[in-house]
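Customer escalation, tier 2.

The customer says the design service returned an amino acid string that "doesn't look like it belongs to this structure." They asked us to rerun it and document both sides in this ticket. The original structure tokens are below, unchanged.
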């Protein structure tokens, strides 16, 4: 069987060369179409919500902004972590972390 393939390839060597060149050209075209980054993104999915309340004291920010925001965000499926650091200027930043795309347990809501 192998002898027949080799004999056929030798007899039709120009066709074999053309087929090999066509496959190599197709591979070269597809190589440049690959979406490859220099450094792959391995970070978790994150969403950052920043609110500004300059007229409120830190206690009022905690009661009126931070607590309702965290309470509303706790029902998000796949939520791993929520943190809300406040500063003295009345800013609240809520960072939500979800599983990465590579995690087998990551829900579909975070995959897109």
């Amino acid at each position: 069987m192998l002898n027949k393939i080799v004999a056929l390839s030798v007899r039709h060597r120009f066709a074999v060369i053309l087929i090999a060149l066509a496959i190599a050209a197709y591979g070269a075209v597809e190589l440049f179409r690959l979406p490859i980054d220099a450094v792959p993104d391995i970070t978790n999915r994150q969403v950052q919500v920043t609110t500004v309340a300059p007229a409120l004291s830190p206690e009022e920010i905690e009661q009126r902004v931070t607590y309702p925001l965290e309470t509303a965000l706790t029902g998000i499926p796949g939520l791993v972590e929520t943190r809300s650091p406040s500063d003295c200027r009345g800013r609240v930043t809520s960072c939500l972390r979800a599983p990465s795309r590579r995690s087998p347990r990551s829900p579909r809501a975070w995959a897109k």
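Tier 2 assessment: The sequence is consistent with the input. The first helix runs from residue 2 to 11. Helices lie at 2-11, 13-33, 58-73. Sent an explanation to the customer and offered a walkthrough call.
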